[in-house]
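User: Design a sequence. Structure:
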């Protein structure tokens, strides 16, 4: 009876992807067996466990490991999350709408902060990507039943790093595992704690003994646990060359880009101001996309940037009425310390013409609404 119970347990672990745990049980059964046929079957099972485990460790771009704990059975497992545009019907599809929103906001801010003159507003086809729990080798009904019982949002951190992996076409190391909830707050992507960290850590130690980092905000004295809540720090550990993201994104034709170059200008009367110059790339004006995305940029960045602490000129917008409309938004008007102007042709010699469309509400404004002045970009 003992062998039957252990065999049933080994089969359950095997069928849910816990190959190392299953292998240990089959090895014990092999050592205790005296029958030739049983020994042969156990050896075959041990071989299958080893081969399937190797297959599971082969991550493709857009895949990441995350641990789960089933409170109903008290069992833990390490699963693979896959980002795809065509999820399979045999597995569980996960809700990542919040994750995509957070990741796109994170990348927008990262590019603006680190590259200075690049801002991507439209992530194109990436907005349609979905996430699923990747099937294990020889997926069966038992595995399907097990993953369907998984609840909660602890997979979101794995989904966030897997989404970036898919976008950059760069694989994540199989020695990294993720568990956490993500949200974009105060201009930063934050990672929040999840339950059952110790139970998940136990599953990792059994199923992924080569793990170097278990990224989760949970508390533990274990050395493999990285409890950072800062997504930027985490992502720079995972992708050692993440600073090359600008080159990767700019070379990707599937992303519709609206770029922003921030530079200094000198007026004809020798006063320094800031120039926000937009380049449109392939972004379209249909259905108000450009208006909505520009609005989000100004709303999220105006009150957090030193670039807005003096007079500025906006240049390069496609729609003539768009700039005045933006300057009427309170997130902008409340933070104009001097004035806001727009480029207005024609040019004068090497100078461009600008007209002030909004002045600050205090007495410090050097130019008033309707004033016209000439400027040129400063040579670096």
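Assistant: Done.
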């Amino acid at each position: 009876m003992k062998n039957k119970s252990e065999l049933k347990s080994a089969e359950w672990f095997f069928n849910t992807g816990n190959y190392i745990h299953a292998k240990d049980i089959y090895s014990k059964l092999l050592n205790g067996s005296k029958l030739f046929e049983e020994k042969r079957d156990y050896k075959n099972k041990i071989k299958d466990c080893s081969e399937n485990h190797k297959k599971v460790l082969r991550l493709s771009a857009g895949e990441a490991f995350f641990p789960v704990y089933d409170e109903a059975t008290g069992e833990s497992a390490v699963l693979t999350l896959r980002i795809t545009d065509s999820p399979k019907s045999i597995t569980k599809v996960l809700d990542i709408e919040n994750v995509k929103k957070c990741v796109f906001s994170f990348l927008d801010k990262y590019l603006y902060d680190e590259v200075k003159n690049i801002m991507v507003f439209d992530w194109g086809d990436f907005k349609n990507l979905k996430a699923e729990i990747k099937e294990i080798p020889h997926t069966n009904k038992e595995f399907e039943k097990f993953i369907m019982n998984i609840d909660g949002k602890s997979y979101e951190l794995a989904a966030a790093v897997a989404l970036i992996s898919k976008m950059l076409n760069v694989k994540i190391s199989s020695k990294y595992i993720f568990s956490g909830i993500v949200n974009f707050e105060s201009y930063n992507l934050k990672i929040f704690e999840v339950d059952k960290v110790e139970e998940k850590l136990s599953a990792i130690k059994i199923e992924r003994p080569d793990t170097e980092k278990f990224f989760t905000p949970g508390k533990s004295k274990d050395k493999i646990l990285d409890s950072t809540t800062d997504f930027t720090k985490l992502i720079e550990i995972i992708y050692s060359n993440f600073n090359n993201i600008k080159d990767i994104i700019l070379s990707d034709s599937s992303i519709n880009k609206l770029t922003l170059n921030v530079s200094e200008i000198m007026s004809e009367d020798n006063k320094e101001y800031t120039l926000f110059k937009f380049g449109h790339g392939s972004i379209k004006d249909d259905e108000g996309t450009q208006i909505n995305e520009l609005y989000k940029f100004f709303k999220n960045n105006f009150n957090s940037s030193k670039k807005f602490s003096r007079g500025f000129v906006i240049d390069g917008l496609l729609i003539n009425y768009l700039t005045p409309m933006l300057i009427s938004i309170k997130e902008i008007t409340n933070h104009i310390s001097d004035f806001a102007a727009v480029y207005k042709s024609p040019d004068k010699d090497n100078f461009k013409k600008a007209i002030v469309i909004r002045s600050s509400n205090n007495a410090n404004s050097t130019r008033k609404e309707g004033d016209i002045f000439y400027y040129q970009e400063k040579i670096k």
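The radius of gyration is 28 Å. The chain has twelve helices and 15 strands.
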